[in-house]
Amino acid sequence: MTALQACYQNGFRTLSNFKRQFKAATHHTPTTYKEGYQLK
Q1: Cβ atoms within 10 Å, residue 34
Q2: Taking the alpha carbons of 26, 31, 34, 38 in that order, is the dihedral positive or negative?
Q3: Over the stretch 9-30, which tens digit does the pLDDT of each residue have?
Q4: CB within 8 A of 29, min separation 6: which ones?
């Protein structure tokens, strides 16, 4: 799932707002969070 897909599926209207809120909640950007939790 892309950050844009997650953005719209969770009710955010803009990607920048989603990224800001995501980082505030997790202390990671969506990209670094995804990279850290991908199966290797």
Answers
A1: 14
A2: negative
A3: 999 999 999 999 999 999 999 9
A4: 19, 22, 23
Name the one residue in this structure whose structure tokens are 């920048």: 16
Phi, psi of 38 (to 5 degrees): -75, 145
Question: Do the Cβ atoms of 30 and 19 come closer than 8 Å?
Answer: yes
Tell me how far the alpha carbon of residue 20 is from its chain's centroid.
9
d(CA 37, CA 15) in angstroms, rounded, equals 21
Q: Which of 5, 37, 33, 7 is nearest to 19 (CA)?
A: 7
